[in-house]
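Structural prep section.
Before we set up the soaks we want a predicted structure of the protein with zinc ion in place, mainly to decide which crystallisation condition to try first. Input record follows.
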Amino acid sequence: MGIHFGVDYYPEHWPRERWETDVQLMKEMGVQVVRMAEFSWFKMEPTLGEFHFEWLEEAIALLDSYGIKTILGTPTAAPPAWIVRKNPEIQPIDREGRRRYFGGRHHDCQSNPVYRAHIKRFVTAFAKCFANNPGVIGWQIDNELGNSHGDLCMCTSCQQLYQKWLKRKYGTIEALNDAWGTTFWSQGYNDFIQIGTPMITAVGENPSAMLDWKCYCSDLIVNFADWQAEIIRNICPNHFITHNFMCFDNKVDYYDLAGLLDFVSNDIYPAGHWQKQPHQPESELAASHDVVRGYKKKSFWMMEQQSGMAGWEIMGRALEPGQMSAWAMQSVAHGADAVIFFRWRACAMGTEQYWHGILGHSGKPGRIYNEVKKLTQTFTKYMEDFEGSMPCPEVAIVHNFRQNYALDIQPHHPQLRYVEQLQKYYKALYDKKIPVDFVQDMDNLSQYKLVIAPLQYLMTPELEQHYMDYVANGGHLILTMRTGVKDANNLCMTKMELPGRLGMLCGIEVPEYDCLLETTGGVLYGKKEYQIEKWCDIITLNGARQIAEYSTGFYKQTPAITENKYGSGIAWYIGTEPGEELMEDVMTYITEVCEIETLGTAGDGVEMMTRESEDKVWLFVINHTNDEQIYHLHGRYTLLEGEREEALKPYEVQLFVGNKRR
Ligand SMILES: [Zn+2]
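Run finished without errors. Recording the tokens verbatim:
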């Protein structure tokens, strides 16, 4: 497409006289695309049916005259006050039964038919106005769907839709009663119309009902996006449609959402105030990019790449010189075809007045501007070659939203989080410079030498068979604690000891377990004692070999980690959460058994990642630290960008090219 760097731009925040200065500065910085208008409904329709697109047409024409293209966002995450005043019922209801009012954003119910009618009316006019505009290339539906929608929405409209959804799924109320186990605490229903949205209870919740609710909410969001996309697609068949995801966020099944988009986009704020400080670890950022690539098994766009201090009432740390460029190129290394920086200029008003951008409040180009300019000058010439190319990892980690939902409902241990478990396994591979794909559980796994499937908590006969077939045919599989615990309805398995039929695959049984509440435990692996956390499955060997044993608890000297040959492959079972040291050592052992290739060796803070096209391999070496670093590569590559091979300056990004091996 020839478009690889851009900014999120809000010309409506600034006087008209400023626009040309902005566009000139953008052009000089290497901007090829902007995203606009995703929060500008009032500006475009100040009263019912009175459309004012002329300011936007003018901005688009000005940008286009400098060769800068536009992506338009539909502003449906912030309906204007006149709609809300006219139709207050479109405002969502939270679990406490409170209406959530106008004054922020996302003050809308996505199932509400009145709100949908307003959207249809507006989006149709919006799309028609820009369908043949030469400056416009595509659309972003809404903004960060799922954001701010924690437990929304409990309104009557959502209740009716939820009842229909359940009826479609279960057919009869008896089937729902069985699936939800409503015999417990007298929760049986006579009819679907008795079922409410999950408002706050006196105490406790039905885990099966909550799982269905989360799946319903995800389906509603996907339906909302699909329905909007359809309106635009019919009017603008030549424009692409995308949406800005939020990494691992768990309010909507992103695999489903990705299905209706031409490509996936992502937003990332490594140094936001809500992240671990001083910033989210690079391994977690890398995993986020990898999972985003996995949602559609396709390269993606960064729609919002952090370019300044981020926060609302509280702010995160300032970005060090070079740090943002390293993060931006990390996005590219993991599969981004374009990087759009949020945002062009920090604005003077509103909730996000301290969400900084490339330009500060004064609008004068400074340190960050010059840094991005250098970045685009260095890398734009390669970006066209990268486009569409993908990493080809030998290792996959299984990721699934239903497992995430089920463990959010019952985390077992107060600190246990599904995505964090995935991140812990990921980090051990990242540190060894081993690229990783994220896959869904029922995907074809045969291309991977090693598959890691943490917390396979909800299990089906099909998934059991899928894993058994993969290993029988020579695959290497890691399963972990809390595997095979529940069926697809979130009811406990009762026919066999845990982990069900996968016990045959792993050569073990798990008749008992222990939650390490307010404590940690120990494991002996080799001759060394290591720390473990959160959980211990108490394992009986049934053909497997023990490779680590517990050193604490009444079950000490019993197996903690096992290995079992099955068919032509190997299944490992890790019955606990390994501390970082144990994780590193066990993963060294397993990746060596599987003969997984590593890209090189380097200290912490140096990242290596590849993208491959038909005949070429691009290798990125990124220094995420403010210190000089040394490294060593395991393959033969030619240095394209960078000062000196095997040495990195602070935050330096080096680019190599090599020939494809496979
Ligand atoms: Zn609602």
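Observations: Residues 92, 109, 111-112, 153, 155, 157-158 surround zinc ion (CB under 6 Å).
Flagged for discussion at group meeting.
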